[in-house]
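Researcher: We plan to redesign the surface later, but first we want a full-length starting point. Tokens attached.
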């Protein structure tokens, strides 16, 4: 019989909260200096929803929020092929775009999205991730704001899933 994987707490709610607050402070101060005054926060569905909703409530400058849906995973394995399932509804033209993502692993997803958005005449494109599995990187991509660097473990919770389960855990857990 197949062994059932169990989530084990890895990053607490308190640690996440503190980190989200400090990232939001940095973002607010950086974009306050932008001449456009048009910040468009773009969340990648579905994994970013919890992080994004906590983050934007701590950002102290006006911003728009939009979503894009991308998929590259099947179960706990990356397929390496990024599929776009849903596009932006707001125009990115002339705006400072901040991509918000739950986790960067190989980097394929964020590289694909950043290159795609750069063709649509924004003022700037930056990336904010909660988790970074830096040792798994396959392509080079600059991360402008990051929460935690983590080892090569499969994690769930705080928006992250395994076959759509565990997104509602209030903390990040490793599947064991
Ligand atoms: P990348 O394209 O390999 O960087 O993968 C990024 C995407 O894979 C993320 O948006 C997640 O949806 C998913 N992913 C990568 N690692 C994990 C993990 O440990 N748990 C859950 N999803 C993950
Ligand atoms: Mg994702």
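Model: Full-length starting sequence:
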């Amino acid at each position: 019989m197949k062994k059932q994987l169990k989530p084990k707490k890895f990053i607490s709610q308190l640690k996440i909260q503190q980190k989200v607050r400090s990232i939001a402070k940095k973002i607010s101060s950086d974009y306050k200096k932008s001449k456009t005054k048009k910040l468009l926060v773009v969340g990648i569905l579905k994994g970013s929803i919890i992080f994004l909703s906590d983050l934007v409530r701590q950002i102290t400058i006006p911003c728009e929020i939009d979503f894009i849906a991308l998929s590259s995973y099947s179960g706990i394995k990356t397929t390496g092929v990024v599929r776009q399932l849903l596009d932006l509804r707001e125009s990115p033209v002339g705006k400072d775009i901040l991509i918000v993502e739950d986790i960067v692993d190989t980097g394929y997803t964020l590289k694909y999205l950043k290159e795609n958005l750069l063709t649509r005449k924004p003022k700037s494109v930056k990336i904010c991730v909660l988790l970074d599995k830096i040792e798994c990187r396959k392509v080079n991509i600059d991360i402008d704001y990051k929460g935690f660097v983590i080892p090569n473990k499969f994690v769930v919770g705080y928006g992250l899933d395994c076959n759509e389960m565990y997104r509602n855990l209030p903390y990040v857990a490793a599947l064991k």
